[in-house]
Design goal:
Strand order of the largest sheet: 1-2-3-4-8-10
Number of helices: 8
Oligomer: single chain
Radius of gyration: 24 Å
Distance between the termini: 34 Å
């Protein structure tokens, strides 16, 4: 049973939009693709876990951001079975990596990467302290899961909590097959969810302003901004994908809200944001259909119903 589902992070959503609407630096592009690859690996792990026999009686919590003693730490997945809390750090590394004599993790091109075992050790320690602070006693079993079959680690020390892709099936047989979900475990799982922190992604984003972001409606298929509007239809000049204008405008409104959380949704602002639709009447019709108008004279704006 999944108690806390996994969703795309707000940071990843924002980077996807910025990647097609502005020029990112090499470092920012690398970070963006790291987010994409990490999320892809986590989804693969989720699918693997869900297919295991007996998973319906496990309690699963994904993407927890917790704090202990003024230090925050992130957990990819927790699996609560009987009296044991399995703590998974999921890595979607690809290619050949080796550990040198100083314990550094290096690619064959001598580029150093983060040691996931140190990350796991830090997070496990903080999680243990957090549980102690709340009077919760449970056995913690931490593991780094390498989910990508195209990853190879050389000179790995024995006895480390590492599970390679070829070991996943063998590892799954070690997980207990619980017959029932205990009420105390459900209570414990919800306690952890209540401690989850919603962290703002904006402090980690590239610097941008409304003026330096490219305007237009992106293609839902290839993500290009090279889209034209013809007689109620959006047509991508790159891949020829066609889409109804209403769907494209609504998607653009969502992007507008994510990138400009302090800006009001108005006919004028969305007309400027979409750029390729000449008629403000078309924009007004779509906004009126899906949002609620908050009348304030010249400063009237549209809001979603739960904001009213």
């Amino acid at each position: 049973m999944v108690i806390k589902p996994r969703y795309e992070s707000e940071e990843l959503k924002l980077y996807r939009i910025l990647n097609r609407r502005m020029e990112l630096s090499d470092e920012e592009v690398q970070h963006y693709w790291s987010l994409e690859k990490g999320y892809e690996g986590e989804l693969q792990f989720d699918a693997w876990l869900a297919d295991l026999p007996g998973s319906e009686n496990w309690l699963i919590l994904n993407d927890l951001m917790l704090e202990c003693n003024r230090s925050t730490f992130q957990i990819d997945s927790l699996l609560l079975v009987d009296e044991t809390l399995y703590f998974f750090e999921v890595k979607n590394y690809e290619g050949d990596v080796y550990i040198d004599g100083n314990g550094r993790w290096l690619t064959l091109a001598k580029k150093e990467i983060k040691n996931p075992l140190l990350q796991l050790e830090r997070s496990e320690s903080l999680l243990r302290q957090l549980l102690q602070n709340h009077g919760i006693k449970t056995l913690i079993e931490p593991y780094v899961i390498f989910i990508n079959p195209h990853f190879q680690l050389y000179q790995a020390p024995l006895g480390q909590p590492i599970i390679f892709p070829t070991q996943l099936q063998r590892f799954s047989k070690k997980l207990p097959k619980s017959l029932i979900i205990k009420d105390q475990n459900i209570k414990f799982a919800h306690q952890l969810v209540a401690l989850h922190l919603e962290e703002s992604p904006y402090k980690r984003l590239p610097r941008y302003t409304y003026d330096n972001i490219k305007k237009g409606i992106s293609c839902v298929s290839c993500k290009s901004l090279n889209v034209n509007y013809e007689m109620g239809t959006l047509i991508c000049n790159n891949c020829a994908y066609k889409e109804e204008v209403e769907a494209g405008v609504l998607r653009s409104v969502n992007e507008f809200k994510l990138l400009n959380p302090d800006n009001k949704i108005t006919t004028a602002s969305i007309h400027e944001w979409c750029r390729i639709i000449e008629s403000k009447k078309t924009i007004r019709r779509i906004l009126s259909k899906h949002f609620i108008l908050v009348p304030q004279g010249r400063t009237s704006y549209y809001a979603e119903s739960h904001f009213i």
